[in-house]
Design brief:
Structural class: mainly alpha
Largest sheet: 3 strands, antiparallel
Low-confidence stretches: 1-11
Strand content: 5-15%
Mean pLDDT: 86
Distance between the termini: 38 Å
Order of helices and strands: EHHHHEEHEEH
Helix content: 40-55%
Shape: globular
Number of strands: 5
Length: 203
């Protein structure tokens, strides 16, 4: 994952970079109760996902313990991305736990700077699944250096929580799609009806 070299113009926050693609590919592997299945359920499923994902080096042998570690790293990242969306249930202690886990991950999967005339690339010096986790952290670090880390969000519509790049002009996007936004609006409308409020649903 490459960071911007000195003097390189800042990318638009609406640009989907390779770092963003790698990060979203990793966090969008969880089941959502609405059709998406868990892709890190065990070592075999993690290895199958890696074999199809060029962002992480292709085929890798993985154990059930590796799959559990992948789920923990992914879920910590999803909690942070939900916090970017202002999801109240992810704030406070859940966010603190996630950040503590990510700090531990940073020490377990360190990154190395690869310097060339064309720029600087962060890469994992490790092998196997550890390299995969390092690559995820490199993607996070690379994008966060653009000062637009807060634009990588998770959909506030439970149980979706799909990771997405907020491309709105003001960075105020909360949902991965209009459909999820409509579902939340309808639930809120029905809740108001039950409470005796007849306000119409908001799109």
């Amino acid at each position: 994952m490459s960071s911007a070299a000195a003097g390189t113009p800042k990318l638009s926050p609406r640009t989907v970079t390779p770092a963003v693609e790698a990060l979203l590919a990793f966090v969008n592997t969880r089941a959502d109760g609405a059709g998406r299945r868990e892709l890190f359920g065990d070592g075999d499923s993690l290895a199958a996902w890696l074999a199809e994902c060029d962002d992480f080096g292709g085929e890798t042998v993985a154990t059930d313990a590796d799959a559990a570690a992948a789920r923990e790293l992914r879920d910590a990242l999803v909690t942070v991305l939900l916090a970017h969306s202002g999801d109240e249930e992810s704030l406070g202690e859940p966010l603190q736990r996630a950040e503590r886990h990510l700090r531990r991950a940073g020490s377990l999967y360190p990154l190395a700077a690869v310097v060339t005339a064309g720029g600087v690339e962060l890469a994992s010096p490790q092998a196997g699944v550890e390299r995969v986790f390092g690559t995820v952290l490199a993607a996070v670090t690379t994008f966060a250096q653009s000062s637009d880390w807060g634009r990588i969000k998770a959909c506030r519509n439970p149980p979706c929580h799909f990771g997405f790049l907020d491309r709105t002009r003001n960075g105020g996007g909360l949902y991965c799609s209009p459909g999820c936004g409509s579902q939340v609006s309808m639930r809120n409308y029905r809740r108001r009806q039950r409470q005796g409020t007849q306000a119409p649903p908001q799109a």
